[in-house]
């Protein structure tokens, strides 16, 4: 997996994104503190800061969880997905500051260590209304910080993709823990209905978008599904002119997504699952003769499935043949890096 | 839709500039999101539960004089200004030290003495506490003659919430209820006097210093009950302007 993590580099887009992110966070904290002090002159700075940081981090997590499904529903959101890592690190930092401040304020300077106090100061584990909500926040924080710390592609390469992906699926666990952290904590105490409404809107937005995106994925799978045309395993995909130049046609065969890319009159079948983070390679394009993943721009040679040097990712390739102007696919993967599956349409253009 | 053609564009993150229509789409929406986030900040800020008008004069050190007494928590008995001839002639101020700690280990050797000390005021309604700087404790008179103004005890049953006197009187806002529970437990465990906070129908608060049946400290035993509604049966007496509730934590009842 060698040098793959060098793929992430700085460019003007990324710098603008980071600058805007930083300005937004500072504005959020400033508005919360400013409005808080004007509205409640009796308030203490520590409490306002604690709440500003907590709500900012929780809001940022909502944004993060919305970007994925939005990008699946409409690819124009993809630029936000590309830089999502920085949003994640920012969110974890806000959570860390909030949690650190809470640990100091509520548990520090006492007769036992702050960490021991975090888990022992409220013994009401058996009650829902009195349940210790702070350890829930702490558990979420551990997940978020681990994710942030391992978010760089260096770790993706070193932890191996399955471990890394499992770790990053924990973001949903962290979200659930934080919902409980807020519902069993601040919401038990606040007298206004607004916090409850805000939390409800947040959960519905994240949940709703996830459901919509999952439904769209199922629809796409339904459209691309084909069944084997004969017992030899070859599948009749489509007429060769039907695939737009530079794009791919998706096929779902034996539960696997396969992308048939067309570059001029050459057709190549690749696994449609990007080796980087399982991105939808089949929704990518051919740019400069390479299949490019829409998520973070990883590139693969259509013929052999290998990333260009120095990158070392490889996606499986599949045999293709053209019979009477129609494309046929054998969904049995070739040995990694095998070029023999690719076929030329003999100059026929759509 | 004007931006529809952006669907044909292909964004590649590592390229210096993204495709124009896609980037316009994203920029417009990101600005809306930022506006929305600031709206959330305003809503979240103004929907907080109102803050108490208690006060901790953090960093403001003053000098106080009075007689040290232990009930069993240390209190400083200070003379009231003569301006109010109808009221009691003294006030009792609870003492604490920095952090989630009681002052008793520092004050015990000077029990009954008239002392001078430095510290910062913590106050709420007419209850006062001093966070004392222990090294400033100086004895003015070894044994101070002073009238014992304790009343007889009367049996009573009260409903309220146990808070730690230090945070509730002003160091933390909020200094009670569930979000503050852990901190209250830590303070009480560290020796800060526990107080039963009782509110009448109009919301006016009365504080009862909480001790065991024999007037002993029962801090460790009240810990499981802090910051939630409970009913306490015991006997109440006064000592100057302090209300002291003697009760067995065994008989506390959660509501
Ligand atoms: C060690 C970890 C954590 C601790 C000890 C902790 C502690 C607390 C405490 C004591 C409160 C109540 C404060 C109050 O309202 O007076 C609170 C509220 C809250 N926390 Fe956390 N928290 C932790 C982690 C997190 C994380 C990681 C997030 C999200 C990124 C988060 C988000 C919130 C939110 C949104 C609230 C409600 C708003 C507020 O009252 O501040 N917390 N937390
Ligand atoms: S998933 Fe990251 S580039 Fe494909």
CATH architecture of the largest domain in chain B: Beta Barrel
Sketch the major β-sheet of chain B: 5 strands, mixed, barrel
Question: What bound compounds does this protein have?
Answer: protoporphyrin IX containing FE, FE2/S2 (inorganic) cluster
Terminus-to-terminus distance of chain A: 38 Å
How many distinct folded domains of chain B? 2
The CATH topology of the largest domain in chain B is what? OB fold (Dihydrolipoamide Acetyltransferase, E2P)
The span between the termini of chain B is: 59 Å
Number of structural units classed as domains of chain A: 2
Low-pLDDT residue intervals, each spanning 5 or more residues of chain A: 1-8
Keywords (chain B): Membrane, Transmembrane, Transmembrane helix
Transmembrane segments (chain B): 30-47
Membrane topology (chain A): Multi-pass membrane protein
GO molecular function (chain A): 2 iron, 2 sulfur cluster binding; dioxygenase activity; metal ion binding
Structure write-up:
The complex is a heterodimer of chains A (350) and B (255). With 350 residues, chain A is an alpha+beta fold. Chain A has 2 domains: 12-221; 235-349, Rieske Iron-sulfur Protein (3-layer Sandwich), CATH 2.102.10.10. Chain A is built from 11 helices and 11 strands. In chain A, the strands form 3 sheets. In chain A, strands 2, 3, 4, 8 and 11 form a 5-stranded antiparallel sheet that branches. Chain A has a 3-stranded antiparallel sheet with strand order 1-10-9, with no helix packed on it. In chain A, helix 2 packs parallel to helix 11 and helix 4 (84-107) runs antiparallel to helix 6. Chain A is elongated. Residues 1-8 of chain A have low confidence and may be disordered. Chain B is α+β, with helices and mostly antiparallel strands. Chain B has a 5-stranded mixed barrel. In chain B, strand 2 and strand 3 form a beta hairpin. Chain B is elongated. Chains A and B meet through helix 1, helix 2, helix 3, helix 4 and helix 10 of A and helix 1 and helix 4 of B. FE2/S2 (inorganic) cluster is lined by residues 274, 276-277, 279, 293, 295-298 of chain A.
């Amino acid at each position: 997996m060698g040098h793959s993590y060098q793929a992430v580099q700085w460019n003007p887009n990324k710098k603008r994104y980071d600058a805007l992110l930083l300005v937004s966070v500072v504005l959020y904290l400033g508005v919360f503190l400013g409005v808080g002090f004007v509205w409640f002159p009796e308030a203490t700075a520590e409490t306002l800061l604690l709440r500003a940081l907590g709500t900012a981090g929780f809001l940022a997590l909502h944004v993060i969880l919305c970007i994925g499904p939005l990008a699946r529903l409409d690819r124009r959101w993809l630029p936000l997905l590309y830089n999502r890592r920085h949003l994640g690190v920012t969110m974890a930092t806000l959570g860390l500051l909030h949690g650190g401040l809470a640990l100091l304020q509520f548990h520090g300077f006492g007769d036992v260590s702050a960490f021991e106090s975090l888990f022992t100061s409220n013994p009401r584990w058996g009650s829902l209304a009195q349940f210790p909500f702070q350890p829930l926040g702490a558990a979420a924080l551990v997940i978020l910080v681990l994710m942030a710390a391992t978010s760089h592609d260096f770790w993706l390469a070193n932890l191996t993709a399955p471990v890394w992906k499992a770790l990053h699926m924990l973001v949903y666990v962290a979200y659930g823990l934080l919902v409980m952290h807020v519902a069993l904590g601040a919401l038990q105490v606040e007298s206004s209905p607004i916090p409850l409404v805000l939390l409800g809107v947040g959960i519905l937005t994240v949940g709703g978008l996830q459901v919509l995106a999952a439904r769209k994925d199922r629809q796409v799978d339904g459209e691309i599904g084909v069944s084997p045309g004969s017992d030899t395993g070859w599948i009749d995909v489509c007429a060769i002119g039907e695939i737009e130049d530079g794009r791919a046609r998706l096929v779902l065969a034996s539960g696997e997504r396969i992308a048939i890319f067309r570059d001029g009159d050459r057709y190549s079948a690749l696994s449609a699952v990007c080796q980087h983070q399982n991105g939808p390679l089949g929704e990518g394009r051919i740019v400069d003769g390479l299949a490019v993943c829409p998520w973070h721009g990883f590139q693969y040679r259509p013929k052999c499935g290998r990333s260009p040097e120095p990158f070392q990712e490889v996606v499986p390739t599949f045999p293709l043949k053209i019979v009477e102007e129609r494309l046929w696919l054998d969904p049995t993967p070739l040995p990694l890096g095998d070029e023999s599956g690719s076929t030329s349409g003999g100059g026929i253009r759509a | 839709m004007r931006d529809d053609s952006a669907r044909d564009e292909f964004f590649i993150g590592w390229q210096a500039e993204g495709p124009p229509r896609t980037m316009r789409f994203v920029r417009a929406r990101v600005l809306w999101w930022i506006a929305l986030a600031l709206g959330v900040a305003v809503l979240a800020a103004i929907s907080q539960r109102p803050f108490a008008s208690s006060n901790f004069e953090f960093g403001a050190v003053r000098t106080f004089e009075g007689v040290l007494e232990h009930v069993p928590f240390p209190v400083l008995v200070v003379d009231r200004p003569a301006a109010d001839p109808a009221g009691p002639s003294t006030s009792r101020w609870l003492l604490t030290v920095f952090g989630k700690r009681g002052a008793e280990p520092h004050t015990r050797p000077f029990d009954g003495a008239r002392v001078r000390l430095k510290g910062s005021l913590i106050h709420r309604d007419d209850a006062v506490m001093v966070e004392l700087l222990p090294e400033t404790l100086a004895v003015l008179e070894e044994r101070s003659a002073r009238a014992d103004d304790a009343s007889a005890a009367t049996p009573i049953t009260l409903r309220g919430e146990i808070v730690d006197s230090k945070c509730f009187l002003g160091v933390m806002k909020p200094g009670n209820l569930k979000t503050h529970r852990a901190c209250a437990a830590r303070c009480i465990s560290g020796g800060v006097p526990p107080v039963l906070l009782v509110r009448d129908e109009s919301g006016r608060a009365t504080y009862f210093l909480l001790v065991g049946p024999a007037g002993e400290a029962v801090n460790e035993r009240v810990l499981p009950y802090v910051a939630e509604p409970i009913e306490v049966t015991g006997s109440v007496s006064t000592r100057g302007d302090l209300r002291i509730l003697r009760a067995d934590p065994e008989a506390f009842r959660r509501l």
